[in-house]
Amino acid sequence: MNTQLTFKQKLLGEKLAMAGLTWITFWICIALAGPLLRLDKDPNTNTQHEAYSFSEPGTEAVLEDGTKFTYWLGSDKYGRDYMSRLMAGSSISLSVAGISVLISLIIGLFMGAISGYFGGVLDAVISWFFQVVWTIPTLLMVIAITVAFGKGFWQVFVAIGLTMWVEVARIVRGQFISMRELEYVKAAKALGVSDFRIMFKHMLPNAMGPIIVVAASNFAAAILIESGLSFLGVGAQIPAPSWGNIINEHYHLLTSDLAWLAILPGALIASLVLAFTWLGDGLRVAFEVNK
């Protein structure tokens, strides 16, 4: 009797991974829907109503023009709708994470494939380069890019992507080293197939399992790094709402009755990081070969 489970069956059996995927999907939908779902339609959710400064959740507001709406999660000190700002913040966190991971995958796949496939002196040189880049802290990379090009949104994901690709490259290198002596690779070489075609059409698909797992892990790391950088003021710049700079604006309220203004974005960061971690663990289990 065949007891082998398919990838889909194994992944669906991982309850935490499914919970993480559901939560991630929910926030992706929030980020993509954008102003359609937010009460504050301003791109930066920066519409201010100081008469409703620090409103409690559920406060009914009547604006100067007679418009009525509800502050479902209250407002900040400028009277900005807090729920709208948190929703808009998800767009920044997820887009920075997504683009950073994409950059790391493009560079990491290329460098790791070349290093693992060709080996020899080229492998030694690229591996040395891995170690050099690995020692550069992300914050130092962001500061260097900021000094060169100024503070801004794109500098953050470039900096994160340029410090995360090494992990991808090391995984790809290890996979290619283990595959380059397999029969189908030798047969392709004997038939005159080009090296790049062998690497990226024949070998890379067989290495995608570990790469997808590390990409999920990098998503979690990128969200955490972006939030930390925005908190420090070198990430997304005010008034653009990032969960990191929203915490920066309100962390001093942690010991007051308004502590939820700092706790909510922190809880959202933690929950998304945990969701990607659960998903990564589930993918790792699903890609494992049944014993």
Q: How are the SSEs placed, and which strands pair?
A:
Layout: H1 7-12, H2 15-33, E1 59-62, E2 68-71, H3 82-118, H4 120-134, H5 138-149, H6 153-179, H7 183-190, H8 195-203, H9 208-232, H10 243-250, H11 260-287
Antiparallel strand pairs: 1-2
Q: Can you put this structure into words, describing what you see?
A:
- The protein is mostly helical and about 290 residues long.
- The chain has two domains: about 5-40 and about 80-285, MetI-like fold, CATH 1.10.3720.10; about 45-80, no CATH class.
- The chain has helices at about 5-10, 15-35, 80-120, 120-135, 140-150, 155-180, 185-190, 195-205, 210-230, 245-250, 260-285, and strands at about 60, 70.
- A two-stranded antiparallel ribbon has the order 1-2.
- The two termini are about 15 Å apart.
- The mean pLDDT is about 85.
Total number of beta strands: 2
CATH superfamily of the largest domain: MetI-like
Mean of pLDDT: 87
Question: How is the largest sheet built, in terms of strand order?
Answer: 1-2
Spans where pLDDT lies below 50 across 5 or more residues: none
SSE-based structural type: mainly alpha
CATH architecture of the largest domain: Orthogonal Bundle
How would a crystallographer describe the biggest sheet? Answer: 2 strands, antiparallel
* CATH overall fold name of the largest domain: MetI-like fold
Q: Radius of gyration from the CA trace?
A: 23 Å
Describe what is shown at a glance:
The protein is mostly helical and 291 residues long.
Features:
MetI-like fold; two-stranded antiparallel ribbon; 11 helices; 2 strands; 291 residues; elongated; 67% helix
